[in-house]
Automatic annotation (TrEMBL):
Residues 50-352 form the Acyltransferase domain. Residues 9-19 have a biased composition (Pro residues). GO terms for molecular function: acyltransferase activity, transferring groups other than amino-acyl groups. Residues 1-48 are annotated as: Disordered. This is Acyltransferase 3 domain-containing protein. The chain crosses the membrane at residues 82-102, 114-132, 144-162, 174-192, 198-215, 227-246, 266-292, 299-323, 335-353. The keyword Transmembrane helix applies. Keywords: Membrane, Transmembrane, Transmembrane helix. It comes from Streptomyces griseofuscus. Residues 34-48 have a biased composition (Basic and acidic residues). It comes from the Bacteria.
Length: 395
């Protein structure tokens, strides 16, 4: 602990200069916190941020609530007001987060494989499943068309297209203005919502591009007490505007699917509504994220299964609709709406759990190694990861 004193009559030798420890190796007296931080640096990406898992779960709960309100809001102005406010930001929030976690996508072979296996293949499977469900459970005849997304499946197709274009958005100088320009073009082009639901792909594109541009410090700005205070009058104003516009506004504006001409408006209204809806979506998304807890909660673990909840809850919503369950709830007015809301949240929560994920993993995360050629670079990377495993275990 202390250096020994020299003996009398002996000239003390100077001590050698202190040497810094090697990179990544903590010194003998390094504090425990520093060692933990270095251990985390050795294992990048292994720990999930509870904030984003919480945000994804709450967003997907709002999606399920919105779908359950859709058959009930007729002749219920208060419910239509809430519906319009929720639909202004619930999918934009989900898409912004999807864009944020797509920043690293760079067309590397292993990432393209994961995109195909985790997004494209589930799209095909669920598009077929929903089409057959509509035909036999809903007694709706019609051709099975993989290029015309039904109900919820549009998001998978859109996510595939958006993520494939991620390298392009990294190259251009003004990605968000360009994305807004494309969205405005989509809002004045009748028929663009036909094949591949291209209307939604274009009109929601700015939300995805915004997510690509965000950085951790931007989310830190939203997660402050000041932002939570500001969000209260913003939400109050949104509800007031929603109440005033509910009898006059076409719900299809919130779906970002049709051109202005198809909604009975002049063409120039399309670009104006695109900018207005994007601005409102960004503002309300920021206010929503301000209230998302950053700590681990009982629903944090469910954030990893939100895509399961998203795709599976549609079967429940449609089943209740086909069986006339929403008609029964409507007879009880606000009490019926409240019960449906609670059941919608409970259902999507159940569908995000680990047991449900294990049952449906074959469709959501299929093992597709057999379908791809082995890439030498990828094999080398896998070998390096396996070689590091013993080192990681000892950190």
């Amino acid at each position: 602990m202390f250096d020994a004193a020299p003996s009398p009559g002996q000239n003390p030798r100077p001590l050698p200069p202190a040497q810094s420890p090697a990179d990544g190796v903590p010194g003998p007296r390094a504090p425990q916190r520093a060692q933990e931080e270095q251990a985390k640096a050795v294992r990048p990406g292994k720990e999930r941020d509870p904030f984003f898992d919480n945000a994804k779960y709450l967003a997907i709960a709002l999606v399920a609530i919105g779908h359950s309100w859709s058959p009930l809001k007729t002749d219920n102005r208060a419910l239509e007001d809430l519906y319009n406010v929720v639909y202004t930001f619930h999918m934009p929030a989900f898409i912004v987060i999807s864009g944020y976690f797509s920043r690293s996508f760079d067309m590397r072979p292993d990432r393209v494989k994961r995109l195909i296996a985790g997004v494209a293949v589930p799209y095909v499977l669920f598009q077929l499943a929903y089409s057959l469900f509509k035909r036999y459970a809903g007694h709706m005849d019609g051709p099975i068309n993989l290029f015309s997304p039904y109900y919820l499946t549009w998001f998978l197709l859109a996510l595939f297209v958006w993520r494939m274009t991620t390298p392009l958005w990294k190259l251009v100088r003004w990605p968000l203005p360009i994305a807004l320009g494309l969205a405005m073009i989509g809002s004045v082009t009748p028929g663009v919502d036909g094949s591949l639901d291209f209307g939604r792909i274009l009109q929601f594109l700015p939300c995805f591009v915004l997510g690509l541009l965000l950085k951790p410090e931007h989310f830190a700005l939203m997660r402050t007490r000041r932002m939570r205070i500001v969000s209260l009058p913003v939400f109050a104003a949104a509800l007031a505007i929603g109440w005033w516009t509910a009898p006059h506004m076409n719900d299809n504006w919130f779906y970002r699917q049709n051109a202005a001409q198809e909604l009975g408006a002049p063409w120039w209204i399309g670009p104006l509504m695109t900018l207005a809806m994007f601005g409102c979506a960004v503002l309300l998304t920021a206010c929503f994220l301000a209230w998302v807890p950053g700590r681990r909660t009982w629903f944090t673990a469910l954030g990893a299964g939100t895509l399961y909840g998203y795709l599976l809850h549609g079967f429940v919503i449609k089943s209740v609709l086909f069986l006339g369950g929403f008609d029964i709830a409507q007879r009880y007015g606000d009490y019926g709406s409240a019960v449906v809301t609670v059941l919608a949240v409970a259902t999507v929560t159940l569908l995000c759990t680990k047991p449900v994920q294990r049952v449906f993993r074959f469709a959501m995360e299929p093992k597709m190694a057999w379908a791809f050629v082995q890439d030498a670079t990828e094999l080398a990377r896998e070998r390096q990861l396996k070689e590091r495993e013993p080192v990681k275990a000892g950190v």
